[in-house]
Specification:
With 863 residues, the protein is of the alpha+beta class. Among the domains are: 191 residues, tricorn interacting facor f3 domain (Immunoglobulin-like), CATH 2.60.40; 133 residues, Neutral Protease Domain 2 (Neutral Protease, domain 2), CATH 1.10.390.10; 81 residues, Sandwich (Immunoglobulin-like), CATH 2.60.40; 147 residues, Zincin-like fold (Alpha Horseshoe). The strands form eight sheets. The protein has an eight-stranded mixed beta sheet, with no helix packed on it. It has a five-stranded mixed beta sheet with strand order 17-18-19-21-20, covered by helices on one side. A four-stranded antiparallel beta sheet has the order 10-11-16-13, with no helix packed on it. Strand 10 and strand 11 form a beta hairpin. Helix 16 runs parallel beside helix 18. The two termini are 14 Å apart. The structure holds (3S)-3,7-diaminoheptanoic acid and zinc ion (ZN). InterPro entries: Aminopeptidase_N-like_N, Aminopeptidase_N-like_N_sf, PepN_Ig-like_sf, Peptidase_M1, Peptidase_M1_dom, Peptidase_M1_pepN, Peptidase_M1_pepN_C, Peptidase_M1_pepN_C_sf. Belongs to the peptidase M1 family.
Length: 863
């Protein structure tokens, strides 16, 4: 198979001035008739993509083409010679009920729905399925009225009624006046409950809002509706973006390949990112719903009104929209805490990706399957680039650039260059070097050294370097905005400064300071880099206690904890016990100080009390035994629990619920800190923690506390775990979203009979191997969240996991390929485990997998 290359881009040969689609919806044989007004732009063949559909007829200007008039293969229909302008009519048939890929038109829970991004539309009809072909769509849907009472598509409904000559069938016609690429097409048909509300836009237009959910679930969409209205308002206030259609709809479905999809006027959501109530959803679920509802809504401008010229430009809509949803969440829930969450996610997934065999630039220049490029790099690092742009330009010039972009590029399919050019034009700044961030893979390392110069004055040296990544051995300096400040024992000793590092090194000086101080570097994580500094433990402790930048206070604690865990992991691996560490005591004292500080909110304190995950520590190491690392990370939690036991206990009691559940940030922060205390107590196997967890489990009236108690109990272990797990299952048997949580707890906990227990779960009738949420919960949870079993030295974890990936690949290659990404860290493992992973990857390649899985396996292996 040959890769698609950015440099091969050529503009479309034909323009589609309008598209009319007529669907006769039947679960196992849906017929699709399209009628397209085509204008030829260049004297070239018209290439229409198509996959897994039966072609019934092709007509040009009403005349049926003979089989010899066109070329047809598994992937496309080619019309070699076309008139200058003509009407193209195509009839195809597809089988939605047999579509297990969940791309194109498929059936979920007896309802029709679609997923077209990136290349799903070609599973519906033959079409130039590329984002730079934009057209105005009119869509007619016809289906049985009893089974499919609602018929939805993009835009505004212009007509509906009974089909006169067919009893029991009805139809609806939808028109979307905004030209769009095929990937934004959507239709939905089925029985739903509808939650209705409305929003009045800044120019006074009244927009009905409708959320479609499984019957009985309408009240669970109330939070999403509230988040939607807040998002609409926020985008008007902060980015000047107003909604454009006469109606906005969201539909929740159970079977979905990822989180949600921004189809024009008809967003489709994975029900796990839409449905929530106190009893069944955690605070984390509420938070995710808020941010994803906002994200998909924000795409209406950053993605839909201005779309991408080709899929290499994916970050143009995704990085920008992630940045926008992060800013929204920060405004809704507090800046420092949001920044911590975003940086944790970035480090956890994107840094690992950028340091491993799957590293690629934010704008890649080659791919086999575009589905494999919906990555943390394109989304999360892409968002960091926009954030740096704002830092470099300042808020006002950033907004001017954004306004210009939306004005100038509206209705077009744009490139990253065009986006950046708008910011250059609006700000007068030269952003040529900034483009390197889009082109160069790998996380730059920022090295910071202090030097004393004459009369006690100081100099700070900033130096950057980036390691080679696959296919990119030479790296050039990028522009790194560094926010820094001098901090003494009682807080700031200087104003915060912004230094732009553009070459490989630069230095700044500051005058003599007559008291002990430290430098707070990269405040608010002003650039997506790794830091290497000469900071001592004393420096880190000072920053933990006195940095005026809340983010960096947290960061200092994380750095210290990372050192503690890494040292302990080495000690466990080599069998040499480390000397009693004074850093540990200082660290715990600093934690206590933050815990008692009334200036910080509970959500922030909960993060400070959470040491970095072992996966994050792994990145700072060359090679490590993952089990030793996991033990080291457990050791640190236990040590915190030991040293702060009484404080944690007091805090746990003091934070008890006094009012009914509210999902707001403040209440969530309180629960987060309380449950964090419980988790730390449980990690020291405190008998009291068992009692507290049992009580919390039986008395809690919300899922946040219920699940936290359940997890604490599994951490504590013992014979009662099995019955507790069963009781939980029985209680929630009828709620698939809660059962997904049950499966992830199962996936991540200890089991007496090891991997076999997980294997049995995949064979039980409770499991649903066709449902991505369930597979992610069990198989994904196992690979990413159960290092003890996944990395078993007998290889049983890797073997079982690989079997599951291959099994999934036969039905849903996208999900299979995504799961396989769990092996991306394999070069960090010890030699013995590397050999075993290599064996599994070779087995995958030999098994004739899908193109999606093959691409990931080969790249991971470095083949
Ligand atoms: N744009 C979609 C993602 C589509 C993924 C296709 N494999 C959701 C989002 O990012 O908003
Ligand atoms: Zn998106």
């Amino acid at each position: 198979p040959t890769p698609t290359l950015l440099e091969d881009y050529t503009p479309p040969s034909h323009e589609l001035t309008s598209v009319y689609l007529d669907f006769d919806l039947q679960p196992s044989a849906t017929s699709v008739r399209s009628k397209i007004d085509v204008k030829r732009l260049r004297d070239e063949p018209l290439v229409l993509n198509g996959e897994n559909i039966d072609l019934r007829s092709v007509k040009i200007d009403g005349k049926v083409l003979k089989r010899t008039d066109y070329k047809l293969d598994q992937e496309k229909l080619v019309l070699a010679k076309t008139p200058e302008s003509f009407v193209l009519e195509i009839e195809t048939v597809c089988d939605p009920s047999a579509n297990s890929t969940l791309m194109g038109l498929y059936v979920s829970g007896g309802r029709f729905c679609t997923q077209c991004e990136a290349e799903g539309f070609r599973r519906i009809t033959y079409y130039p399925d590329r984002p730079d072909v934009m057209s105005v769509f009119t869509v007619r849907l016809e289906a049985d009225i009893a089974t499919y009472p609602y018929l939805l598509a993009n835009g505004n409904k212009i007509e509906d009624g009974a089909v006169s000559d067919k009893t029991g069938r009805h139809y609806a016609i939808w028109h979307d006046p905004f030209p769009k690429p095929a990937y934004l097409f959507a239709l939905v048909a089925g029985e739903f409950d509808v939650l209705e509300d409305s929003f009045t836009t800044m120019s006074g237009r009244h927009i009905p809002l409708e959320i479609y959910v499984d019957p009985g679930n309408a009240s669970k969409a109330e939070y999403a509706m509230d988040a939607l209205k807040r998002s609409m308002k926020w985008d008007e206030q902060v980015f000047g973006r107003e909604y454009d259609l006469d109606l906005f709809m969201i539909v929740a479905v159970r079977d979905f390949n990822f989180g949600a999809m921004e189809n024009k006027g008809l967003n489709i959501f994975n029900s796990s990112l839409l449905l929530a109530d106190a009893a069944s959803a955690t605070d984390m679920n509420f938070e995710r719903i808020e941010s994803v509802v906002a994200h998909e809504y924000f795409h209406n401008w950053s993605g839909n009104r201005v779309t991408c010229r080709d899929w290499f430009q994916l970050c143009l809509k995704e990085g920008f929209t992630v940045f926008r949803d992060q800013e929204f969440s920060a405004d809704q829930r507090g800046g420092a805490v949001q920044r911590i969450k975003d940086v944790r996610a970035l480090r956890g997934r994107q840094f690992a990706e950028d340091a491993g065999p799957l590293a690629h630039p934010v704008r890649p220049n080659a791919y086999m399957k575009i589905d494999n490029f919906y990555t943390a790099t394109i989304y999360e690092k892409g968002a960091e680039l926009i954030r740096m742009l704002k830092t470099i330009l300042g808020a006002e010039r950033f907004r001017a650039g954004s306004d210009l972009y939306f004005k100038k590029m509206d209705g077009t399919a744009a490139t990253v260059e065009q986006f950046i050019a708008c910011f250059e034009e609006a700000s007068g700044e030269d952003l040529t070097q900034f483009m390197r961030w889009y082109e160069q893979a790998g996380t730059p390392k920022l090295k910071v050294l202090r030097e004393t110069i004459s009369q006690g004055a100081h100099r700070i040296h900033f130096m950057q370097s980036t390691k080679p990544t696959p296919g990119q051995s030479e790296k050039s300096p990028v522009v790194i905005p560094i926010r820094w400040q001098i901090v003494g024992d009682n807080g700031a000793l200087s104003e915060p400064k912004l230094t732009l590092l553009t070459g490989s090194g630069t230095s700044v000086t500051y005058p003599r300071i007559d008291e002990p101080y430290s430098v707070s570097i990269l405040q608010d994580f002003s650039a997506p880099v790794t830091l290497e500094t000469d900071a001592t433990t004393d420096d880190l402790l000072r920053l933990m206690g006195a940095d005026p930048n809340a983010f960096n206070r947290w960061e200092a604690g994380q750095t210290l904890a990372r050192h503690l865990i890494a040292n302990m992991a080495k000690a466990i691996e080599t069998g040499v016990t480390p000397p009693a560490d004074t850093a540990l005591k200082g660290y715990c004292e600093a934690l206590k100080k933050t815990l008692d500080d009334p200036d910080f909110n509970n959500a922030f304190k909960a993060f400070v009390l959470t040491p970095p995950a072992s996966s994050e520590v792994m990145q700072s190491l060359e090679q490590v035994d993952p089990i030793a690392l996991h033990e080291a990370s457990k050791w640190l939690s236990r040590a915190i629990g030991d040293l702060l036991r009484d404080d944690l206990l007091d805090r746990y009691h003091a934070l008890a619920d006094t009012h009914d559940f509210r999902p707001d940030a403040r209440s969530a922060g309180r629960r987060a800190l309380r449950n964090r205390c419980l988790a730390l107590l449980a990690s020291r196997q405190d008998p009291l923690a068992a009692t507290l967890s049992q009580t919390q489990l039986s008395e809690s009236t919300n899922m946040t506390d219920e699940l936290a108690a359940l997890m604490a109990l599994t951490r504590l272990g013992g014979q009662r775990v099995e019955t507790t797990m069963e009781d939980f299952y029985t209680k929630w048997e009828s709620d698939p979203l809660v059962l997904d949580k049950w499966f992830s707890v199962q996936a991540m906990r200890r089991h007496a009979d090891g991997v076999h227990a997980i294997e049995q779960l995949t064979e039980s009738s409770r499991y649903q191997r066709n449902n991505p949420n369930r597979v992610r919960a069990l198989v994904g949870g196992f690979a990413m969240g159960n290092p003890e079993l996944f990395h078993r030295i007998d290889g049983s974890g890797y073997r079982f996991f690989t079997d599951q990936v291959l099994d999934m690949d036969s039905r849903n290659p996208q999900i299979a390929a995504r799961l396989l990404g769990a092996f991306e860290i394999w070069k960090k493992l010890d030699d013995r485990r590397q050999d075993m992973v290599r064996g599994e990857l070779e087995r995958v390649i030999a098994s004739n997998p899908s193109k999606n899985v093959l691409e990931i396996a080969e790249k991971t292996l470095g083949a």
